[in-house]
Amino acid sequence: MWGYPEPITRLIEQFMKLPGIGPKTAARLAFHVLSMPEPDVMQFAQALADVVHRLTECAICCNITEQSPCSICRDAARDDRVLCVVQDPKDVMAMERTHEFNGRYHVLHGAISPMEGIGPNDIRIRELVQRVGTTDIAEVILATNPNVEGEATAMYISRLLKPFPVTVTRIAHGLPVGADLEYADEVTLAKALEGRRQL
């Protein structure tokens, strides 16, 4: 297909499965791997294998972790009454960098997106509703991304949580619409947390 030996062609095809990687970048990465010392290549391969074999989901918050429950859920110093709902595991780290939030998290692993065939049953909304119904949570902060899918997911969750005695808030739009939480700086995220509003 590429005119390269089969192992390089396979590696290029694997790199192209990554988001934002086209054929030229994939070929450049494949040839970079080819030029790396063998121990570095083996460490790279081991890191990929570890992501698959050593990580699991936290049984409480659905975040990725090596040990369930995760370190955040095991931390007794955290406020059990405030729950921050985010789309992806990387968003937990973005929120943690602000040093402004000391509650618990719930990771949805996506957002409702009919265009991509992702409905409410495809993400961790059921687990969220069950968690809110069985614990003493007083506030749920919806920190989904400020784009169409994130807004739709936040509105859907807010309607589901109406019967529960919890305050549902949404992070303020100090974040630009269409942006992802992982790319926001700490000050912007901190301001967005401070300006959250009830839905």
Question: Could you please describe the fold and organization of this structure?
Answer:
By secondary structure, the chain is of the alpha/beta class. The chain is built from 8 helices and 7 strands; from the N terminus they run αααββαβαβαβαβαβ. It has helices spanning 6-15, 23-35, 38-53, 71-74, 89-96, 125-134, 148-160, 186-194, and strands at 56-57, 64-65, 82-86, 104-107, 139-142, 167-170, 197-198. The strands form 2 sheets. The protein has a 5-stranded mixed β-sheet with strand order 4-3-5-6-7. Strand 3, helix 5 and strand 4 (104-107) form a beta-alpha-beta unit. Helix 1 (6-15) packs across helix 2 (23-35). It starts with 5 loop residues before the first helix and ends with a strand.
Q: What key attributes describe this structure?
A:
single chain; about 200 residues; alpha/beta; five-stranded mixed sheet; two-stranded antiparallel ribbon; 7 strands; about 40% helix
